[in-house]
Give the backbone structure.
Amino acid sequence: MRNIIKLIIAPISSLIIIMLGISYLNTFISLRVTADGYPSFITGVLYSFYYLGMMIGAFYLEKIIHLKGHIRSFSMFAGGVSAILLIQSFTQPPYTWILFRFFTGMLVAGLFIVIESWLLLLACPKTRGSVLALYMIAIYTAQSFGQFGINLVPIHSMQSFNLALIFCTASIIPVCIMKAAAPSLHEAEIINVFYLFKKIPLGFLGNFTSGLILGAFYALGPVYAKNSGYSLIQISMVMAVTIFGGMGLQWPIGKLSDIFPRRYIIILVCAFICSISLLLVFFHESSYNMHLLLLFILGGFVFTLYPISITYCCDFFSSSGLTSVTAAALLIFGSGCIIGPIIAPLFMVIGPEGLFLYIALFAFLLTFFAVYRQHTAPPPPPETKENYQVHPGLSGNLSDSE
């Protein structure tokens, strides 16, 4: 494990640096569009195009990685994001930004594929969970601290873009100066998403619901906080504390899913998401500190729904083909991320707390479906059950149906 850590320091470092910039940029985009007087629906559209770009990038950019390798591909994608940010800084929201968000999403998807495949190719089955744990901790840490960037520069100045541009450009340095060579890629598999839905509907809908919730929260969480009357530093805390909650509860909930049937854990997680979201709706007028506490707990459960759903899908697959499973999961999750930011603003007409009414509704629907599957579908074959992984691995051949 010590040798693997030495090999992953460079890609993890690059990941942290660029995620500081990307997480700051995503929050900045929401606040800037809101500050310019546009409705939350416009913010949702911008995020939907961002996730649409991620979906398309996941399909097409893998070919570049196979052709150019990990280091060159990462440098190309990070440099492309920097160029887009520089051009975007000379334009005004929101309409021209739709195109910029789309291409940014494409390149960010390429960055994720580079780092994830890099780490997974370095890890063996016995160390994959630990390596991916470090991966998720790096992402959540960077996302949390990146939120505070909005307090460093004026929101309407060129410096707002320059801050994100600095992080994106600097992220190229660690992977370029590393001594060890990046691993070689294997041929990717193709999976039929509709076949996955037919075989494992609960896992499919778990990924989709996670996208609906997280896509809406990332897009409209800053809007909720701003319309609730919070200052910039308080908005930063709202986003950061929620993401920190996701990092804090990954392992405890994951270990429970290794001990008890994952359907039970999915039901438990969704029930908590629904309950806490309703508390945020009904006690919207409560203190700021109470809101932070509830958001921390909510984040802990919301951010675990995706990896548990992925791991549940893997229970029905052999360990020889995780790439095709997670490729399909990314498509399903991305679909939810596109739709969520468009639907959620409809709930916010009642007030900013409508965001959590939206989250509660879809969490309840998934809870209901999971309970239904618990009583009607057979459990996964015990010989194929994989240990919970903080982030989905990349592999899979279908072994049985749900």
About this structure: The chain is about 75% helix and 0% strand. The longest helix spans residues 2-35. The mean pLDDT is 83.
